[in-house]
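Table S4 entry, Trehalose import ATP-binding protein SugC.
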Amino acid sequence: MAKITLDNLAHSYLPNPGHEDDFALKELNHDWIDGEAYALLGASGCGKSTLLNIISGLLQPSQGRILFNDVDVTNAPTAERNIAQVFQFPVVYDTMTVRDNLAFPLRNRGADASYVAERVQQIAQMIGMEDELNRKARGLTADAKQKISLGRGMVREDVNALLFDEPLTVIDPHMKWELRTQLKSLHHEFGHTMIYVTHDQTEALTFADKVVVMYDGRVVQIGTPQELFERPAHTFVGYFIGSPGMNLFDAQISGNAAQVAGASINLNKTYAPKGGKTQLGVRPEFIRLNGEGLGLPAKVTRVEDVGRHKIIRLDVAGQPVSAIAEEGATVPSENTAISFDPAGINVYADDWRISAEGEAA
């Protein structure tokens, strides 16, 4: 297990980067705590896999250092970093049995045969392949092969870190849930430092102690699922986390009030943005439908009943807005008005969340 430190780390795939936009991974300075489970979450192309491959040693960064437990491993090969990595698509030895695939990392390090047998049995049970241990990997389905890859990544108990690069892409939906649960159990049992790359917010939020949200090559927030939901540090976090994501309203802010589409919104707190584009971020859960004439004018365009609640799609001054109402709530047929629960309002300047006066950042 290891604390992982990213020190002035950045990477460009260009030979002579001259501008920040030339970097696929922009400058990072973070300490990732020994023994915690992290999810790297973001859209395709945001730098998640680049960062993971730098941590694993498959890629040399253009600048900066990476340290394991304060030891510089920037130039150390993968084999010397004592990590296990599971990739997006299966990497297995087709001519070996499932048993031998799972045992390979342990046998390769001279582990005792009885321990190997016991550990392989434990992992096979975890991935649901006890009955296929003696089958050759050749001819197995893609999801079965990926389960072998996962198992081989998890079989060692002495690694500094376990790295997962979108490992459940080819796994069927029911098995995804089972394997995520098993990964969390493994983490709680052995306390490995785990880093899990995904573009799926459900995977990230159900797996990780801390979610690392990446956007345009940068880490925009590291936090618990609750922190990401309640206080998104960047508008992208609000948009990407939640279903539906956070609504954003262009606003003119002065003190404890905001003007949105000609209506005055009470913020209940005082803000002093330093110029730039200012917006209010309000999640659908904090949008209130009040009835026509009682707030910001809105028009109902669609209602989606998802069983536990209704998602109300609205048009507010030409902008699409989402609200969530309880299953039994009455929904206006067309014209209505909305207001915001002040407890659910976040204020942004140039896409970054700003704090109210007297509020901790």
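DSSP finds nine helices and 21 strands in the chain.
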